[in-house]
Specification:
Layout lengths: L5 H13 L2 H8 L3 H15 L4 E4 L2 E4 L1 H31 L3 E7 L1 H18 L3 E7 L13 E6 L6 E14 L19 E3 L4 H10 L8 E3 L3 H9 L4 E5 L4 H6 L10 E12 L6 H16 L4
Parallel strand pairs: 3-4, 3-5, 7-8, 7-9
Antiparallel strand pairs: 1-2, 5-10, 6-9, 6-10
Helix pairs in contact: 1-2, 1-3, 1-4, 2-3
């Protein structure tokens, strides 16, 4: 009998380690149905049962335990080989400096932690971060990549979508008892850095009238978020720019309702630099990380 497909063995090892189809699906970035199908196909291929149910969890059968130990050893040896090869490549590769231009809030809340992780994986690529809020402000004499909340096209630039955004209200935890339902927002200051269009869009979706006399225009988005942290009102934000505030409890989401942001985040680069291997590598990595993050 031939060797089962390697992908099915990888799925098997993940399910065996986590004991749950849903958890394995989340780690593998596939659906639980796809995981179940792979396990079923592997059991048919081998002609043995590998799991039996114990409550809501899957427990290995004796045959499954034998296979799990062998597959886990194999995956670890493959991982060691890959790490060794990558280390040798990185040691041999020349040092490169890449400069990223980004909006200040995005840089602080989402990008910087990602870049430290990227540097750990790619020690030969040194990173520099500068700030700009629009494409016209980006200093392309310095920047290799720009991350912007905007809308294409841009003449002379190449771009790829980073992530679609969804807008939702955020406030400090102390204000939460006062905003138990969307209608309560009519008694709150609505903080915004635009003309109020995004707040109108969200309130229409929530079926709440727009309290025009209760809104406060703040030209700077970082200042609007800071006002929300300080308890001066409720701001509209997104899963990127409030990622750390929500994770660390400085801001909370009083409602699950969200609306499209209208614009999205993009990775931009000069046409003549977009094929550079290190630029492609960083953009691919950032897009993968953006897709991996789940809205809080």
């Amino acid at each position: 009998m031939g060797l089962p497909p390697l992908n099915s063995l990888r799925v098997f090892e993940t399910v065996a380690r986590l004991g749950h189809l849903g958890a394995a699906a989340a780690e593998l970035h596939v659906t639980p149905g796809a995981v179940s199908q792979q396990i079923r196909a592997l059991q048919i291929n081998l002609g043995v049962e590998l799991f039996h149910k114990q409550g809501r969890h899957l427990v290995l059968t004796p045959s499954g335990l034998v296979l799990q130990r062998a597959v886990a050893r194999g995956i670890e040896e493959i991982s060691q080989g890959v790490r060794q090869v990558l280390t040798e490549v990185q040691v041999a590769a020349p040092d490169t400096v890449l400069t990223i231009s980004t909006e200040p809030v995005l840089g602080t809340s989402w990008l910087l932690p990602k870049l430290f992780a990227f540097r750990a994986q790619h020690p030969n690529i040194h990173l520099r971060v500068i700030t700009a809020s629009t494409a016209s402000e980006v200093d392309w004499k310095k920047a290799d990549i720009a991350l912007l909340y905007a809308s294409p096209p841009w003449e002379g630039l190449w771009w790829r979508p980073l992530r679609r955004l969804h807008m939702f209200p955020v406030c400090c935890p102390q204000l939460l008892p006062q905003v138990r339902q969307p209608a309560d927002l009519t008694n709150q200051r609505l903080l915004h850095e635009d003309d109020g269009a995004l707040w109108r869009r969200w309130l229409v979706a929530a079926r709440v009238p727009y309290p025009g006399d209760a809104d406060v225009f703040i030209q700077s988005f970082p200042m609007a978020l800071q006002a929300a942290r300080d308890g001066y009102g409720v701001a509209l934000s997104d899963e990127f720019n409030s990622h750390r505030d929500l994770a660390e409890g400085r801001l909370v989401r009083p409602f699950t309702l969200q609306v499209p942001g209208g614009l999205d985040y993009y990775c931009l680069s000069l046409e003549e630099r977009r094929e550079l291997p290190e630029v492609v590598q960083l953009i691919d990595w950032l897009i993968e990380e953006a897709g991996r993050d789940v809205c809080l």
